[in-house]
Amino acid sequence: MASGDVFTNMFGNTLLRIEGGVTKEIETSTLIKDGVIALYFSAHWCPPCRTFTPTLGDWYKKLTSGSLKDKLEIVFLSSDQSEEEFKDYYSSMPWCALPYSDREKKAELSKKFGIKGIPSLIFLNAQNGKIITREGREVVNEDPEGEQFPWKPKSISEVLSCLEDKLVDNKGGQYKLSEIRKDKYLALYISAHWCPPCKVFTPKLVEAYQKHQDKGFEVIFISFDRDEESFKDYFETMPWKSANYADANKLGPKIARRFGVKGIPTLVLMDKNLEVINQNARSFIEHDEKFENFPWSANICTTLNSEKDFAYLVSHPAVLYTVSDESKFNEAMQILDAVSKKFIANKPRDAIINFFCYVDDEKANSACKEFFHKGCGGVANQVFIIDPQEQMKNKEPITKLDVDSIYTQAMSYIEGELDMVKVD
Hints:
about 35% helix, Thioredoxin-like_sf, Thioredoxin-like_fold, Nucleoredoxin-like, Thioredoxin_domain, thioredoxin-disulfide reductase (NADPH) activity, alpha/beta
């Protein structure tokens, strides 16, 4: 689909722009065809928005008057409470806006892009409308000159390179990341002393780390502590390495953003090539104490009928193919296996989805059965796409049970284009 078509479908035929102090309609098809189009979700009544908007305005004017002329555009999507408030707020903005009257389109876009708070700034590829990054606010603050344009997320190795010479143990010894992770799995433990679930989980992780060193894995503590004294007290309980407090305070948020961390404690497990294996290894420390299934690889295709399977289900996004009895299981698994192979062959590098087939009969595991009946409504012979961290599922279960239909929906989810609703 051509660029103009993508954004005309997204915004409608017309947008607003202020020219010479007068608000005019422009054709959506005239938006830039290359570079970045940013969606700015904001409102006048929101104090953080009013603080950020002037900063964004200065950044936009500076970049579009220089090297990024015709390479950067912003579209304001208003959450103001009246058209009068919208007009007053928009009068200070040098970019485009969705007409305030199109409330239905604004609500649709907020839902499509999963907006949970404002201000929010999402960067899209101007050629195809695909998301580049949801961290636009951080880009504005961290790249005032636009040197990192078009702001594609850095690779994991690039992000972790900031830790190379900054690791210490709790006795003050210094280490290189490349040396301690050599030929090992690497786990990033994102945690903080002030967090009660973290303090409950840390002793479990310490025990697992000390008991299973033969598995060849190393842990790096990424601290979200609020002061150096708390960091030192907490780090004293850990047998692994960390950046010191000053470095952790600066680098931790960047690392957490790269891995999409939404809460702590989080344990991200990577292989020896820094490919993410499991973004929620915490659940496996708790459910696989003997490390029988280590390294807990994601993008698996299996049945859903045990505590171990349930740990996988709640660790990552999942395609859940449900059948009402054993007679339909083999056909379902054949379809699901083909979907998973197609997904793995075509997915974005860091994308993870697990694939499960669940038989809703008397043999079903109790935790799995409860999730299916309470979370998915208990209607079998459908396919659900589950996002456990956000507690969401696809709004319309998939009833056309073939490889292409299920694969298309899975990729739509990965691309942020699938309608999702809260799990009941």
